[in-house]
Structures
1.
Amino acid sequence: MDRPERHFEKEEERLKETLLRLGATVEGAIVDALRALMDGDPDLARKVLEHDVDIDQLELECDRICTDIIALYQPAARDLRFVIAVLKIAPELERIGDLATNIAERAIELSKEPQLRPLIDIPRMAALAREMLKESLDALVRLDADAARAVIAKDDGVDALMEQFFRVLLSYMLEDPHTITRALRLMMVAKYFERIGDGATNVCEMIVYLVEGRVIRHGGLHPADGGTE
């Protein structure tokens, strides 16, 4: 193996490690944001906000490494697909990190008010959304397109939980206008978790593209083009 190929493999491995660090950091932010919400802990919520810069920096590092790989090694076929996939997955993970900060912001606001109702539905949504994100990252590590498709199939469950939660909160608002502000904030939290599920779905669509060369966005799980290696 010649020297340029060794350098390319090292850069590709560095890119994988950086992307997985980004994913792990985002997972941690979601866990802490949920804990801050459930415990009414504004200090923990503020830590989530402070650490958002770490997520941003990891996303930028992924972008820099991808740019260097393209400029220096001009990858083709599967290697090029990997770089393209990372260029799309890293910003998606960064956006999920932003959603964790949004949850933390609502946690700070809600910590100042009496709890509207037991937050049973929020942990259920959070658990499913976190499971989707974790399994999407596992599928990425294993380059497992079938596992990625299984994650995509779970997104309807998050949507259903959000709609159910919205109906409950709407009944609170109709019965007592004093609950409207708190209910709206909880609706926003539910929507953030629903969008985390959407983000995990987007990651999995890119995993299918990476593994199979198939673009399944917008067409569900029935791609129009087969792709090539």
2.
Amino acid sequence: MVRTSSTPVPPPVRRPQSVAVNLVAHLERLIASGELPPGSRLPGERELASSLSVSRASLREAMHELEQKHLVERTPGRGTIVAEPSDQERALRALPPLDAEPPDAEQDYAAELRGILEPTIAALAAERATAADVVQLQDVLLTSAGDLRPARSLELDLEFHRVLARASHNPLLTALHERMSDWTMPVRERSHRRKSGRQHSVEGHRDICAAVAAHDAEAARAAMTAHLADVHHLIARQAGQ
């Protein structure tokens, strides 16, 4: 069933980029956050361009990229619809979460999975990221600047890694990453309780983002591997204190 979405609010002011790039970044984050849920019908081109204060040419360019990413479907007579996830994506998203405090063995398994999955995602993101993907990563980093509370720092950490996973342009990897994030949540929460953990998180993200923006797959893989090792060492030191 197609739902009619309310008109999206205009994107925030960003660094100099093409209007279409900023628009793709804005709409993709709305789709990822669920503000524009699957099955939503976007307003017509004229109305949407006016509400977002962009030209229709820029809007068409942005919609073309979103369609290439399989995030929207454009059909004559039906307009533009936010795409539904595939059956495979639904199956991965339906995998059960771990208990709030999983046994040490399960935490180790989850950490091992993360060590395999995240560097691969970072390398693919470096190879495949569009300008809009890079804008989203940079926006999360900008928001992460400053002395944040643990809960907000953790929220932005999760968002950075989600954006990175989407930049791999493999929806199955993205869905599996989402479940893996749930399984590693206890460790991540502990990491963000301390200011040093929050600072290390942002520093690691900056290195990863720089490698992705440079489209250097091996540097991105190495930056992610170093980031995960840094988190592991921080947690180990906390446990020993």
